[in-house]
Amino acid sequence: MKVSKYLSKHLRHQPERIGLTLDPAGWVEIDTLLAATAAHGFRITRAELDHVVAANDKQRFAVDGTRIRASQGHSVEVDLGLPAAVPPPYLYHGTVARNLDAIRAEGLRPMNRHDVHLSADRETATRVGSRRGRPVVLAVDAGAMHRDGHVFQVSANGVWLTPSVPTRYLRFPAGH
């Protein structure tokens, strides 16, 4: 977990803190990454890196030959090159009750990321929401959004991405 969090921080948010420069699509050479982590006191072997990539339950990282990148969730400017995709009729977003007033007023916004992250099933959205407290799962009428011209992409690890979700496409659970 420690290695995964470290990699996420530097491949998604702050590559410059350890002297990395991501290419426009977010890729960096694995040897460059390993040298940078070691130079900043966080030694990772190639075997440890491969294990984290393979064993990460959320498949946060992608490897292409000698390169690695985060699958999504960047706050630094990258173009993942994902094609537009037709979403299922409904997608889901996990949050917590304290965020609901802002969501009702503004819809779902990417905040410090490039896109809003949506899940294909309620179970995954529940896990995402539970990271911040007691989860509340919102249903997103992705079919209607798509028909109305909103663009969706799906990352390599199955996370659905869209720039924003206006309130009219959200379904709040009873009691929320």
From TrEMBL:
Which Enzyme Commission numbers does its entry carry? 2.7.1.-
Write down the SUPFAM superfamilies for this protein, in alphabetical order: ADP-ribosylation (SSF56399)
Keyword annotations from UniProtKB, A to Z:
NAD, Transferase
Q: Please tell me whether the keyword Amino-acid biosynthesis is annotated for this protein.
A: no
Q: Which GO terms describe its biological process?
A: tRNA splicing, via endonucleolytic cleavage and ligation
Name the domain of life this protein comes from. Bacteria
Transferase as a keyword of this entry, yes or no, is yes
Which molecular function term from Gene Ontology is one that the record holds? Answer: tRNA 2'-phosphotransferase activity
According to its UniProt entry, what is the function of this protein?
Removes the 2'-phosphate from RNA via an intermediate in which the phosphate is ADP-ribosylated by NAD followed by a presumed transesterification to release the RNA and generate ADP-ribose 1''-2''-cyclic phosphate (APPR>P). May function as an ADP-ribosylase.
Name the family the entry cites: Belongs to the KptA/TPT1 family.
Name-wise, this protein is Probable RNA 2'-phosphotransferase
Q: Which organism is it from?
A: Streptomyces mangrovisoli
